[in-house]
Amino acid sequence: MILDNENGLLLIRNDQLGERIWRSDECYKLIFSPFGRGSYQTNHGDISIDKGEFLIFNPYEDHKQLMATNEKFLVEIKPSLLQETADRLGITAASPEFTLLSYKHPQIRQWMLFVRDFLSLNEEVGSVTNQFFLDNSLTQLSIMMLQYGAGSHQIDFPSISNKAVINDVTNALKESYSEDWTLDEMAQVARLNKYQFAHLFKEELGLSPYSWLQLYRLLRSQYSLLHSNDSILSIALNHGFKSVSSYNQLFKKMYRKAPTEFRRIHGFNK
User: How far apart are CA 58 and CA 183, in angstroms?
Assistant: First the structure.
């Protein structure tokens, strides 16, 4: 099933789930994995999307679908709609750029389930009804992408309502994110052994505890990167990175560009 209009499209399909051709679309593309793992090839390596996770490709990001389990759920959002939504939300960042990272968020999942259920029950409904539904759905999703998608417009990790023990840990990490944290110390906050904690954290958020902490550090660093003239070295060290090289490596993994290029594109001190 494909629904499209001037602001984007929504695609749900159960065939052609194997390797496809290379794509480089002019839109933002959100891919959700409802039933199992999906995988995509990029010029910088493969990206996996586990069950219940989502991933956002930025415009003109080269990628190729390698595999999707049982179903492909994809939404394309035109940059003009996302920018208009950002303006209305008071987000001043021009052309938001999302990290190439898959993780879980309950609001994204709930939106996806609602859309799938509505379309499955209304396949025979006239195009006017479906087009009206699509118009509203794309607007809703553009809001959630900006709220819950980690990217250049964020200075914090998108809020997620989780089990209390996970919230306790993420709150503790936020309060002292620049400090050294071991898995044992995180598990102590959760009052679990480290193996139980690591499994529960990954199950809830789709990220390992250390990956979450590193991404949080990166997002917190973006304000200094974009709004100050501080050196990349000082920004990295002040936000909990052991070295500027580890900061640069994570930045390139998340954005496919170095912090200096990210500053040049998105910074306000140009």
Answer: 32
d(CA 200, CA 165): 9
Q: Answer for the pair 76, 27: CB distance below 8 angstroms, yes or no.
A: yes
pLDDT, tens digit, for every residue of 4-37? Answer: 889 999 998 888 888 889 999 999 999 999 888 9
Q: Which residue has the tokens 């960042």?
A: 93
For 87-126, the pLDDT digits (tens) are: 999 987 778 999 999 999 988 989 998 888 887 776 655 5
Q: Give this prediction's pTM.
A: 0.88
Residues 6+ apart with CB under 8 A from 60: 24, 25, 26
Query: How far apart are the C-alpha atoms of 17 and 12, rounded to whole Å?
Result: 11
Separation CA 198–CA 54 (nearest Å): 20
